[in-house]
Amino acid sequence: MEAKKISKRIVRAALISALYVVLCLVFQPISFGPIQVRIAEAFTLLPYLDPAFIPGLYVGALLANIIGGLGAWDIWLGSLFTLIAAIITWKMPNKYLTPLPPIFINAFGVSLYVAPLYNFPYLLSVIWIAIGEAIATFAIGLPILRLFEKNIYKNDN
């Protein structure tokens, strides 16, 4: 792979990482907790276009979770769930299915520690986090994915 292409991928991953953190901070009241719409999760669909986004998403989630205040569980497990969702998204056969890994992995995974931290029923947490993830990925993420596909990855991968 040529140096210019590698540089573009590194910059793209770094930008997504920074944007992930900024969006979590700007929307902090709705980015953490048992009822959340983490707008930054819209970016978890981008590995479908390029696996170079995967480390950027992981680092962004890790930094956001450090700042977010939910503690070690969120820092390590929340970031790990974002990483797993990003890897599975990269392997999805169809772009319209790309929201499914972040929705299911985060709804069931994040609820494992968020529900007890907030003394919130696990299944209710799963439902609310799934709804929030669906909003972030279907309503925001798919249009972003299409935008990247048309304007950034049309002739350049």
Automatic annotation (TrEMBL):
Q: Which InterPro entries is this protein grouped with?
A: QueT (IPR010387)
Lineage top rank: taxon: Bacteria
Q: Which residues cross the membrane?
A: 58-88, 100-120, 126-148
Kindly indicate whether the keyword Membrane belongs to this entry.
yes
List UniProt keywords, sorted A-Z: Membrane, Transmembrane, Transmembrane helix
**Protein name per UniProt:** QueT transporter
Task: Please name the source species.
Answer: Defluviitoga tunisiensis
